[in-house]
Write a structure and sequence with these properties.
The protein has 177 residues and is mainly β. Helices cover 15% and strands 42% of the residues. A hairpin with a 2-residue loop joins strand 1 and strand 2.
Length: 177
Amino acid sequence: PGIYTLNYNNKIYNFIIKPVITGVLHDKIYNDSITPIISGGNIILNNDIFVSNTEIYKPGNYELTINGANNYSDNLEFTITSNLEGVINNNTYLEPVNISFNGDGYLNNNYIQSPYLVTESGEYILKIKGENNYIETYYFSIHDEVKKAGFIDFVQKVDIIVLVVVLISGGIILKKK
């Protein structure tokens, strides 16, 4: 790839040869790994040398630069997410949750590896970190199931109170006789 000038029969022809790029698109967000294939040029991924047809699997923000002859440069920016499964942001669960993700996970600032089972009730913050200052943050909670007091529960409690009152007043009446 590059920027070229051809001088033929006293005429100047300017043209650019672009590389063929497959497997990645500019400004696209991917949930799974990708394998970019670039036909030529010097390829740089986030300021490191990159070899065409190499899988990129870590979540993160990426900048792919292809440099060529005569100051030719082409940039593609894309993101790979953590592909989190098991929890939804700002959700409450009544049972343990099994979470799986790509990247470096931190649950309440403690490092965890995927998959991870969260069993204890409480409030949680899950942060998943990736390449080039990439971070995803999820808030969720697990609560023990709280039995809601219904009409039947209310009637049963009133019945117990009435029974206790009848027994006490019956005992008082029998003592007076």
